[in-house]
Records
---
Amino acid sequence: MAKLTINEDACKGCSLCTRVCPKHILELNREKLNAKGYHPIHCINMDECIGCASCARMCPDVVFTVER
Amino acid sequence: MAVVFEKTKMLTDVPFHYCPGCTHGIAHRLLAEAIEELGKEDEAIGVAPVGCAVFAYNYFNCDMMEAAHGRAPAVATGIKRVHPDKLVFTYQGDGDLASIGTAEIIHAAARGEKITTIFINNAIYGMTGGQMAPTTLEGQVTTTSPYGRKKEHCGLPIKMSEIIATLDGAAYVERVSMHDVPNIIKAKNAIKKALQYQIAGKGFSFIELLSTCPTNWGMTPADALEWLKDNMIPYYPLGVKKEVEL
Ligand SMILES: Cc1ncc(C[n+]2csc(CCOP(=O)(O)OP(=O)(O)O)c2C)c(N)n1
Ligand code: SF4
Ligand code: SF4
Ligand code: SF4
Ligand SMILES: [Mg+2]
């Protein structure tokens, strides 16, 4: 069991996190724009998250908090 | 559940102004986490450069000074000599450190100043619109080398870590990369080690982080990381270039 908290407004939609997630559960949310005007990242299947924090380590804008 | 990752308190709440996918943000976080993990939050004093990281003083949650272009090592020298008990770092780009500030960095290292320099090598002048830097690779296209950097005209790129490692005052010198998660973890360990050399009073410490500038390289952030891996690492080999006994 893991929990991902996403600071949506800090996301710049660079997609670097999506490349490093071993579960491929991170995607840009094309339905949404954040305060900066980017499509923010969202998790499409929280149940699969293993809390490895690879996304958090790759993200240049410190968007993620990870609990496990 | 336990927190396995959260934003370090050594970073302020101010959002980074960097372009999407720019590795300056990763480098800031690694340095901030290293300071926090060493328990030196209240001792740290940083010197910001001129370059895209000019606003670094807004992001690090410690005292910061802004230096004139390339002069951060001279400013840090003054701070450290007045406050020898503080943990003093400079954060500088390749235009700042390897071009206009070459004299300052070489002599700070030669004098063995007990400061730590974080050197962001993105092979370009990012802030001013992508001009050629001394670190720009042979053949690399920039706004001032539109046909690619030519050896006959500009020589080959300067390897700053190797130069610094030749100087007696340098205690710890390592080149690292930020192109994937394992290397990002290694990069933080390198920064931490460099700070430990300063804390132990061993001399000058220097970490070069191979970095990207997706905007001026004209690539997506992901392609820029691949380009770094395929082109920069062969020319700028990773690893420890100098290490005195700690
Ligand atoms: C004395 C002086 N000369 C030139 C400039 C213009 N200038 C600003 S930033 C910069 C280069 C920055 O490149 P780098 O240090 O590589 O930082 P980056 O933006 O790539 O992180 C230059 C030449 C200046 N601000 N001051
Ligand atoms: S913590 Fe790991 S598994 Fe979960 S979203 Fe991030 S990278 Fe994917
Ligand atoms: S790496 Fe960070 S800024 Fe980039 S898309 Fe993922 S969450 Fe957003
Ligand atoms: S111009 Fe380049 S170095 Fe500067 S913030 Fe943008 S991507 Fe980063
Ligand atoms: Mg640069």
Note: The beta strands of chain A are 3-6, 26-28, 41-43, 64-67.
---
Amino acid sequence: MQLTLEFGGGLDLLCQSVKIHHVDVTPNVENGKLTLRDLLSWVRTSLIKERPEMFMKGDSVRPGILVLVNDCDWELCGGHDTELEEKDVVVFISTLHGG
Amino acid sequence: MDCKIVGNGSADIIHEIEKLKLDKKEIENRISKLEAQLKADEAVQMKANQACSSYDSILDGHAVSSNGLTPGMIYRYSRHLLLPDFGVEGQINLAKSSILVVGAGGLGSPVVLYLASCGIGCIGIVDSDIVELNNLHRQIIHPEAYVGHAKVKSAAAACRAINSSINLVEHNQALQASNALDIVSKYDIVVDATDNLPSRYMISDCCVVMNKPLISGAALGLEGQLTVYHHKGGPCYRCLFPTPPPTAACQRCSDSGVLGVVPGVIGCLQALEAIKVASGIGETLSGRMLIFDALSSRIRIVKLRGRSLQCFACGDHADFTQQSFQSFDYEGFTQSPMSDKARPKLSLISDSARITSREYKDLIDRQEPHILVDVRPAHHFKITAIPESINIPLSALEDQISLVDSYLKEVAKDSGKSASLYVVCRRGNDSQRAVDFLSKNGFPLAKDIIGGLESWAQDVDPSFPIY
Ligand SMILES: [Zn+2]
């Protein structure tokens, strides 16, 4: 499944300072689906090159990270169980505090 | 002889009397100046303690047209009045509103300037910092002449120079849970232009218990974020971030840097959102977040979750009162300090593995064979470094540990004695982490310089640049 992943608010530093990743993720073999939960573990193993604790906590993102699917908070579209579709854009953004 | 002595003596006495009279005059001058200053400060303090009653004092006895605006206001704000969607009503709403801006820094500078220019009836500015030279590249409200002075004084002076017809209230103090209710209660709208995590939770909670809309902006590096909290049923900060992030994820401008115009852009947009809330026009960013990426010139506006029914602060069953707000420990909750100045000092290694910058200078003077490893990131090393120091960033130390050994051997070969190993960083925290790592990986005698380059500049070489 072709997806665009974006990392912002400093999270790009965890994946070699690249903000936008065009990726091809294989859906589940059984049902042909790909949920955000599946994507998180794929990102964790395939993209995050250092300090994984800065991205994940347990099986979710760490506190202070917003996950957006096609510019929409994942809480609004089903959280971990959100089913992704071809060409979806998933953004991971760390909240900023500076000023 | 005697006579001469007496003569000289009385001349001395007369001279002494004249001198004392001059001193007296000078002291009296100083007393009256200080008294005047005290009076002025008391007046400012009194004003800060009063509610922000804006509209009537703006009118200040001027004749008002039937639409509620004075001729002076009509002329000054004419370009606003010409906007069909804004018009007289919008302008009167601005004049009647009061806005508190928390933080007169990179975000707060454009916020306060625009709010003053556009005729907000009363603007409160709260900040306890003083203006520093390294603020000026982004905190555009402050001029060089105010370096060393209170930011609120500088900001208020800039606003008065632009618009003498509005009320400005100077809160020259840090906003804390103990004083926030009192200060926030005097305003209709709050703008969060602070630079730290505990203040963000505190201000959001305060706006929930006081029921005020909150315009929240943040900027770091080349990115910015902006939203409106607790407005028209929208979420608060805790709805989005019920749990604070780990402290390692909380970067500050003083560590990570910030391109000056980035908080400027976000601050301008905060002013815009505040004006929209105050005037009642348009659609605010409540329930949405604007994400700005300066490097790629991209602005993304995303839809946020709504208010959380389970929210600790604004949820349906939340038991969060003014009393619980006042006693909430925000620095403890977020594990990070509100003030940049109160940076915690790491104490990771034993004192015997540390030397002062003066001791390091002595061993250079004694020509003790050694190497100095600077573990700051490479782009820090380019800013300034101690001559002859070797840059191995902390993040690369594990991979490049063999380099340390070869540098030591080189010095030992040249000097014919064994070489010692010292480590330095910016403030003396990363150098401890490096020494800790080195001591466990074949370099038990490694030592770090206490206080890093900052103490080198302070105690040894005053000409060494600080940043
Ligand atoms: Zn809430």
Note: The longest strand of chain B covers residues 214-220.
---
Amino acid sequence: MDADATPLLAVRDLTIALPVGGRMVNIIDSVSFTLGAREILGIVGESGSGKSMTALALMGLIDAPGARITGSARFKGRELVGLPQRAFRTLRGREIAMIFQDPMTAFTPVYTVGWQIDEQIRAHGRVTRKDARARTIRLLGDMGVPDPARVADRYPHQLSGGLRQRAMIAMALSCNPSLLIADEPTTALDVTVQAQILDLLRRLRREYGSSVLLITHDMGVVAETCDRTMVLYSGTIAERGPTGAVFARPGHPYTAALLDSIPPLHGARPARLPSIPGSPPAPADRPAGCPFTPRCAYAHDACAVRPPLLPRGVQDIACVLPAEGRDLPARCVTV
Amino acid sequence: MAMAILRRLGQTLFVLFGISVLVFLVFFATPGADPTARIAGRNASPQTIARVRVEYGFDRPLPVQYVRMMEKLFVTRDLTSYVNRGEKVVPEVFQAAPVTVSLVTGAAAIWVLAAVAMGTLAAALRGTWVDRGLMMLGLVGISIPVFWLGQVANLLTQSRYHDSWLFSWVPGLGYVPFTQDPLGWFRALVIPWITLAVLFVGIYSRVLRADLVAVRGEDFMRTARAKGLSPARVLLFHGLRTSMITFVSLFGLDFAQLVGGGALLTEVVFGLQGVGRLTYQALGNLDLPLIMATVMYSAVFVVIANAVVDMLYLLLDPRVRDGRA
Ligand SMILES: Nc1ncnc2c1ncn2[C@@H]1O[C@H](COP(=O)(O)OP(=O)(O)O)[C@@H](O)[C@H]1O
Ligand code: SF4
Ligand SMILES: [Mg+2]
């Protein structure tokens, strides 16, 4: 992507602290990344690594009591950290839109999906009911919804998961946002529908010019969709870089372990995937050194000091191995 | 649709039958309830007692007596009281019903409006002193006995300050029919309405607030906020609208039991000759015809109210409409 121009979104040292058991704990610890225009950035990591928190912070939707957000997140040059709710409201839905994991519970059950899309359109501009509905139907059609006029008059529970997620994406795109945050948009869907939705997300940048922040725990989804990848582990960046490079030469043992557990996107799934033994530490129990130490096959003395995120070729890696000249083996990739 | 109505009608008849049999049997199984002696009067001669027994059909088998009573109640509508001889009970109930319906409907309007306003405001300002104040107020409302509240209201408006400008408009205790004098009806009932509503304002506002706070954590509320809607719109159109589903089911139960006679205390304090009071008198006198008439009225009303709530449900929740929830 165009590296010289100011990026659409520049996040620097974003830190989110919440009170846990009487003290402040960094749920997200100094996360930095940029997102260019029309770029798709994947944020991957196991459940609990802080992906949703990062997204909600960018939307100004963290309202846990006592939450403290520091660092900087510049969107089109405008600082989001510390932005008052009133100002956020004009951004949300219009400039930055978000779609969520479970399309069943993400729509209000008592209104038709068309009504809910109309509502967003009318919240951000003087649009008549009729014009809003016309736009809603066009959007639904664009998202590959068959018979969009009829679907608009249906209630969420009357639609299949795939249709609901398409309607969700239509709603998110209804005001032409520059940034779309998709938090596990395909996790609740079956494999075929998942592939269709990912296809749709890839088309968005062409047809709507949107950048996408795609959050997932599934490396397979990243491989299919994202230009660049950021691997989060326990609220910290493990590795980031162009997707092709990260998949070909993972520099962080955690990335390598995630790559080993990719289910095939097409075809039969194996009965059991190799998974990483153990689970990520809770933010409050994160070890002082590299947070991956307890589960890392390469852990050694040097890992007791938190390794900084250092460039290695086109990637940035938070692990002591590259500096020690012990790169992980390259992989044959089929991306 | 027609099928559903027929089914409900069938259920209603079945319920009415069951309740009436139960009331009937319990009455005749109650020691000392023998109506013959009461009708014949104290120290009646054996001949009088025998005559009454035949006249009222108490010598017949119970099933026959039951059928006769139901016939008099529902078909000829000339069932008479055992206590006030010759007094027909059906017109008595039909006279009392409008009083109770007026009382309860007015109170319901007040309590729904006040509870929605209080509950929503408290949820919107959660954690502030407004929230705490309103919820304390609700708790006070719940803990005040309605009888005491009514007495105090009477004391203030009927005697102590009745001659001051504040309460001189309050008429004496009793009911004024709406058809006769709408303004008088309103004046006579406004204080009973408020008195009856206080308890329910307390309960409903607290329930609604808790519901609204719980619904805040739902995914769809997050979506609504992510759409860039104003906090008021998120709360009212998405939160409150969804919470209304539970609210209505609670309301249906309370409304039905009050109209069915549950507003007894309020009726007594304010001298309103309503159904609650009538039932109470009937029970006190062990007056089976009147008991039967009031119980049947209550049952019919509860069934109707349930039907109305179910219809509201259909209106409020599309998932119920499709029979999926
Ligand atoms: N309100 C909260 N208070 C304390 N910890 C929280 C709260 N919300 C989330 N967390 C913690 O933050 C971490 C990140 O959560 P999340 O962003 O949802 O992860 P992900 O989306 O990657 O699965 C988790 O460890 C979770 O336990
Ligand atoms: S720093 Fe050490 S523990 Fe952490 S990933 Fe690298 S080798 Fe493993
Ligand atoms: Mg998540």
Note: Chain A is about 30% helix and 20% strand.
---
Amino acid sequence: MSTSTTDLTAPVADAFEDPAAEMNAAVERAARRERRMRVLMPVAALLSALALWEFLVWYNEVPHYLIPAPSLIAQTLVTDFGTLMTSMWFTVKLTLVSLLLAIVGGVALGMLFALSRTVEVSLFPFAVILQVTPVIAIAPLILIYVHDTFSALLICAWIVAFFPILSNTAIGLRSADHNLRDLFTLYRATPWQRLRYLLVPSALPYFMAALKIAGGLALIGAVVAEFVAGTAGQNTGLASRILESSFRQEIPRMFAALFLVSLLGVVIFLATSFLSKAVLGHWHESEIKREA
Amino acid sequence: MVSEATAQKAPAEDAPVLIRMDGASKQFANGTVAVRDMNLDIREGEFISFLGPSGCGKSTALKMIAGLLSISAGEITVNGHPPGKGREQDIGFVFQEATLMPWATVFDNVFLPLRMKGMKKKYARDEVEEALASVGLSSFSGAYPRQLSGGMKMRVSIARALVTKPKLLLMDEPFAALDEITRFKLNNDVLELWARHGLTVIFVTHSVFESVYLSNRVVVMAARPGRVSRVVDLPGGYPRTEHYRTTPEYAENCRIVSAALEETMDNVDIDH
Ligand SMILES: Nc1ncnc2c1ncn2[C@@H]1O[C@H](COP(=O)(O)OP(=O)(O)OP(=O)(O)O)[C@@H](O)[C@H]1O
Ligand SMILES: [Mg+2]
């Protein structure tokens, strides 16, 4: 009995000769598996959905002016590459410039709000009114008053993206721990030091959350505004391509433009998420991977 | 270690007064009188404890001394200046929570007071490392606060308070949230730092045992309104090591301070 026990344990003890190395290897394997999963699973899911779509269209012989197959949409993307890219570039420009202006304006005004209660109380109603009025309802007015279409569209997209940045920056700058504030007072921090080393880092998680939202909203604002302006002619964004294709019953082209709009949205989402991780990943709870 | 511990002793009776509280009072905007008519002279090199029930104004008194709260009536001078007006390295403050910046490494957290003075990182390295070494955290300078245990965070906080080599160290229930083993260890660490750097320490606590173990004078405070009810002198027992906890003198001191604290509780309605 006793001999058989030793016989059994011998190889086990061998396998765990270096428990630390064993553990490290296991942790690393788990991490690699997790990374692979995070890329592979969504890609596989998307590809199967496309395959299913292709199959159903083919199997049911759905006509392409109702629902085009993914392969036809891809083909349209290639044949209309020139016009679609011009439109895409227009929408990208519109979205990014409006987002940039929203960041500049939102952060500047948010800082002002955080500095002065009076300013906040006086100006906040305007910000709320801008936010709660649907952009689609104001857009026609803006298009009448602003003659340059790009500027008019820019204003619409900016209105939508601006508010989350403003409100989160203001809240974030106020969110600094009060004991840390006392500490900065104790060491006689200058206003600049306080801003740089306390308020900005405290506000950063709030700002990043706002940026993720505003990125998507800027695109929505750009597309919606262009839909409203659509009849005004000369503008050439992706939304106009969708409208135009719908008038001409070119459904595959419509899907192709739609695909590019989604792609743009996904890229913006990934970019802001990546940025957030890069900036907050080393310390903030929202971006730290929890140990299981 | 032993030689440093033996340097512990209560300051001489005629040591110069560092902090003078002269009828100091604090009334908050909502009408609460947090501290009423507090008179106290704290001499250089003292280790003094503020002991009292919750809400008796211990933190308020400490913050007034640090210049973080205005004084409603009376006067406080620190080193001859009104609070917060002396040289900045005069005071180190340890909050009840570790109060570290979660986005900064241990090194950068401890570096903060020097950075506020306009010092460049590369010149501050020695001082920061020395402060970290004094609390036994040299090997953690690159870690982030979330990677530390509660007791380690508290020690970072103490290192930060010491990095400017202050003469005065104010500690607001620094170890209240820690387990007893860690607390005893940090108690010894603080006593050792006090002796080694010749600090004056004001230590706020709820614990009779902690106040008796650490201080040469216990200021017992009563609530509603917050005020000093008794001051108990405890000049003996040095050097205070774990052995001191087992002596009859320590037991007797605990009994005296407990009795003084109980007196203050007599006229307190608990559910305030
Ligand atoms: N900012 C404030 N505004 C109004 N009242 C306050 C404020 N801070 C403290 N107080 C009141 O002052 C009194 C003393 O508070 P303080 O924080 O000094 O008590 P404490 O002795 O430190 O208590 P604890 O041991 O619980 O920390 C309490 O009654 C409290 O309610
Ligand atoms: Mg307190």
Note: Chain B has one domain: 16-207+218-266.
